[in-house]
Write the C-alpha cells for this entry.
Amino acid sequence: MDEAILDVDHLSIRLDDQLIVNNLSFHICRNEFFCLVGETGCGKTITSRAIMGLLERKMDVHGTILLDNDSNNLIELTEKEWRKIRGKKIGFIYQQPSLALHPMLTIGNQMLGILKNEKVIKRKEAREEVHQQLLEMNFSNPEVIASAYPWQLSGGMNQRIMIGMSLLRKPRLLIADEPTTGLDTINQQIVIRQLIKFQEKYKMSILLITHDLRLVNQIADTVAVMKNGEIIEVAPLSTIKNNPQQYYTKKLWNMMPDAWNIMMREESYAIRSK
Ligand SMILES: Nc1ncnc2c1ncn2[C@@H]1O[C@H](COP(=O)(O)OP(=O)(O)OP(=O)(O)O)[C@@H](O)[C@H]1O
C-alpha cells in the first residue's frame, strides 16, 4: 500500500483576502482508506474540490497535486484535460445524490450514458453491464431499479446508485464527501460496507471526508485532521486514537463519546478474546 496515488504538496487556496486552505501537504497510497476530518468550515470540501478540478475561477490556487505518478500538476490542467480525468481516474460521490442524478432520466439511462461516453459498447452489452453493476450494489431487482427515476427511490438507494455509477468507470481514486449524511443507520452501514467491498475488489484508494468519527474508527487506514484550513496531524488510525500528537486531535475524539465507547468496547472485546 506504499506507493502514492495522490500527492498533495503545499496546496493553498485563497479567496480575496481569506486564506481558505493553507499549505496542505499529504499523500494517499494505493488501496488506502484515507479519512479527512475536522470541524465545519475548516476547508475539507474545498480541498476535495481542488483535487477534482472543480474550484470556482475566483479562487486563487497554489501548490502541486499529482495523480498516479503523472508529472502533470492537476491545478494547471485545462478543462479539456480535466475531462479525461474527472470521473474516469478520480471518481466522486456527492453528499446529496439528488444534486448529481438527473431527475428526468431513468437510473438505467444515466448509467448507460456513462458507459457510452467511456467506450464503444453495444446497447445489449451495456444494459447487461448496468444490471450487473446494480446487482453488485445489492439491488436484487436491477430491471426495476434501471427503469426508475431518482425521485421514485429513497435517499439510501440513490446514494448506492451514485456509488455504482462512479464505479462503472473503475476510478483509481474515489472521493466521498460525507456520503452517509442524511441516511439512517442501516443505510449508512450499507453504503460503508459497499465502499469497503469495492475498495478491496478494485484496489481503489478512497478519500473519505466526514464528521463521523465512529465511521472513521470503523474504516480508516490513515486519518488527517484539519483545523482552520490547515492539516495539523496525519497518522495511522491507531496513532490518532491512542497517541495523538495534537491536543486538538485528542479533543476532537473526546467530543465524540460514541466513538470512544465503540473503541473501548472493541478494545475490551479484543482483550477478552485473547
Ligand atoms: N464558493 C465559495 N465562496 C466563498 N467561500 C467559500 C466557498 N466555498 C467555501 N467557502 C468557504 O471556505 C471555507 C471552507 O469551506 P468548506 O466547505 O471546504 O468547509 P468544510 O470543512 O467542508 O465544512 P463542512 O464540514 O461543513 O462541509 C468556509 O469558510 C466557507 O465559507
The beta strands are 4-15, 18-29, 33-37, 60-67, 90-93, 173-177, 205-209, 222-227, 230-236.
